[in-house]
Design goal:
The complex is a heterodimer of chains A (about 240) and B (about 220). With about 240 residues, chain A is mainly alpha-helical. Chain A has ten helices and no strands. The termini of chain A are far apart. The C terminus of chain A is likely disordered. Chain B is mainly alpha-helical. Chain B has one domain: Orthogonal Bundle (MetI-like fold). The longest helix of chain B has about 45 residues. Chain B is elongated, with a radius of gyration of 21 Å. The termini of chain B are far apart. The chains are: A mainly alpha (about 240), B mainly alpha (about 220). The interface between A and B is large, with 37 and 37 residues.
Amino acid sequence: MEANFAALAEAAPRIWEGLGITLLLTLGGALLAIVIAVVLGLGARLNNVFLRGICRVFIEFFRGTSLVVQLFFFFFVLPQLGVDLPAMVCGILGLGLNYGAYCAEVVRGSINSVPTGQWEATTALSLSKAQRMRRIIFPQAWALMIPSLTNYLIHMLKGTAIVSFITLADLTFHTEQLRQDTNTFFAYGVSLVIYFVLAYILTLMMKGLEVQAKHKLGRGESLRDTLSLKAPDTAVAAEGGKG
Amino acid sequence: MNELWDWDAAYAVLPELLLAFLKVTLVVTVVSTAIAAVLGLVIAILRMSVPKPVAVVISFVGDFIRMTPIVVQLLFAYWTFLSVDPIIIGIAVFGIHYSTYMAEVYRAGIESVPKGQWEATKALSMSTSRTWVAVVIPQALRATVPALGNYAISMFKDTPFLLSIGVVEMVRAGLTFGGNHFRYMEAITLAGVIFLLASYPTSLLISRLEKRLAYNY
């Protein structure tokens, strides 16, 4: 066992680097995915049949062909077409497009489930379409979509474990190196725990976002209040916040 | 050689892809889905009928499996059981991994069975096993069918992860062909097309089923 920990200590800098690659892929992919999700999710609600059709085809295409196929397409096929992207860009593109398409459905569904009264109220206030979406509908939809987005974020983190096949030395790649110096149980045990902790931290951060989004809508306490150790202010809570 | 799309290469790779698809991708999807569907139900029922501390442990193990990458789990099992055929490893890992998702689906389904149903079984002094088999599970399952179908599709699209333990599923077959012929275009594209052709109609079918079950409920 001591030999294992000595090997782990020796491998720590490499594992740290691998962790960086895994995180960069996850966060890069997540940023791309959210942009794509909002664009396609709004696009899939347009009245224009042509534009809506394009968005739908895009969503179904990237959802229907597997993530791994897309990663390999960017990495192996694009160079053949004269587009030679760095492996990291291929990874982020693949993850972002695949999960962006999934999340687009979440965005569309959440916007559709904002109560009709809210839409009618914006008409009564004669807000423009852009104002309606930006100031009234989207903030409410955002609070609704965060739990589903969290699930996809965890899926994305898990999906990054395949990138050693496009030459990226991520956490899984270095786990395999560590296995050769120690044993399977130790190396993969360490790796699984690291992935679990990462996933847990990401979940907590998304929970924080959700608390904040709800607070902005006047529901529940602010993130700072949630995180502080003092007893909740019941008087404010009873008023339903100041939002 | 350098044109965008080479039909000869496409015709050459297609049989290999389809063979790998039928022999590995489909087999793993179907068998693992069956394992996950049964194991998930067992986990869901177990968690509701054992003492609280044991239930907490089961939940934690479930979360742990659900929140860690299937690729790492595959490699872990592969190196631990070196003498076992990788495809068996794949089927087992996919089955267990997805059973943790399906357990959540069943839990929601079981919780959606009205309390009155439980009380009625008590009033009729049914045994615990009969309560589950004759009353709760049939009602819970109805609501869970679409969600289970969606997880089967997402498992289907996850099967290329099997290439990490050397199983020649469709994408691996395509990569091998691409490497041998210095052309990845046809192999990878066709693999994607096959995935799309198989998963899109299935997901349409499931969403229709979802509407029908919801309507009749």
